[in-house]
């Protein structure tokens, strides 16, 4: 079994908080993680209809059966339980609960209302390159990972990515989407999702997405919220501190998993990645999602942004390290060139201070230059965020 990097943080926080919440996309390994970490805890899944009805109709009776040291899976199904949980942990200092779910919005909204100050909130995404490296899976070319993605079931059960993502999308739409939003035309929603995949790494234009899907801008905005809440997409916000209004302020659009994005783009095999128009953007997405995993697996929130001015000059990623900003350019090319640092050097002239600078590229050599360090994509874990 592949050890998850989030394990240490979960064990640390359950000693300090009565409740630990773990959210993340469906099938990212949340249930496996908590069951293995806490074998002595009771386990109940609110995906099961009878248990869900029991929790909804008789919450006091439910907690008489599960008074403490309980894992409640898919807890967003019955968020009303959290107020009862608050009473239990306030009166019983030994009570411990692990709550997990695949809907960040539905969980976090009720947590803030009922369990504020009593809960530690963590996120678990699919496998990271570092985790796969434990079992020597990470020693592959990046095109393979772009196509295959990182969902545990693909690796544990050796499922063909084409089969996995087709079924994953169907499950996601039928369960998660309808749980958050009453969407009457699911075909339009799937079309919208595919159009999002075609815009990976691009500035988000709600009007363009809405027009191409044939929906209103407000509907497009609402559907994007659904995709973000269920960990399908994330948006990268622009960094504009200490810069004037010349800086672009629209976010950029990415997917948490490149395998799902590749499936939505109609990519049917690894070889198609090489000549695909979105190859560079998919590689950029791969790197950014790995940076997010590194933060989330340490129990931290995202601290990554991008920068772009009105002339179109852009830095793919700025890491806000509080005391310093670290610029990173992402290049899918396998041959290093000093020109990769051009935009970073332009950016440095604006801030007029010395910073750590990095290129993450598709090659395999670690190269130190006077402008900064070029890291192979496979060594991304060396970055200190």
Please provide a written account of the structure.
The structure is a single chain. The protein is built from 17 helices and 13 strands. It is of the alpha/beta class and 385 residues long. The protein has a six-stranded mixed sheet with strand order 8-9-10-11-13-12, with helices on both faces. A five-stranded parallel sheet has the order 2-3-4-1-5, sandwiched between helices. Helix 5 links the parallel strand 3 and strand 4 (97-101). The model has no long low-confidence stretch (mean pLDDT 92).
Write the element-wise H/E pattern from the N-terminal end onward. HEHEHHEHEHEHHHHHHHEEHHHEEEHEEE
What's the architecture of the largest domain in CATH terms?
Orthogonal Bundle
Strand order of the largest sheet: 8-9-10-11-13-12
Count of helical regions: 17
- Structural class by sheet pairing and helices: alpha/beta
Dominant shape: globular
* Uncertain stretches: none
Q: Would you report the number of β strands?
A: 13
Name of the level-1 CATH class of the largest domain? Mainly Alpha
Counted up, domains total 3
Biggest sheet descriptor: 6 strands, mixed
Q: State the end-to-end CA separation.
A: 27 Å
Layout of helices and strands:
Blueprint: H1 7-14, E1 19-23, H2 30-37, E2 42-45, H3 49-57, H4 59-65, E3 70-73, H5 81-91, E4 97-101, H6 104-114, E5 119-123, H7 129-133, H8 142-148, H9 152-156, H10 161-180, H11 186-197, H12 206-213, H13 217-229, E6 233-236, E7 252-255, H14 258-264, H15 271-275, H16 279-296, E8 304-308, E9 314-320, E10 325-331, H17 342-351, E11 358-361, E12 367-368, E13 373-376
Parallel strand pairs: 1-4, 1-5, 2-3, 3-4, 10-11, 11-13
Antiparallel strand pairs: 6-7, 8-9, 9-10, 12-13
Helix pairs in contact: 3-4, 5-6, 8-14, 11-12, 12-13
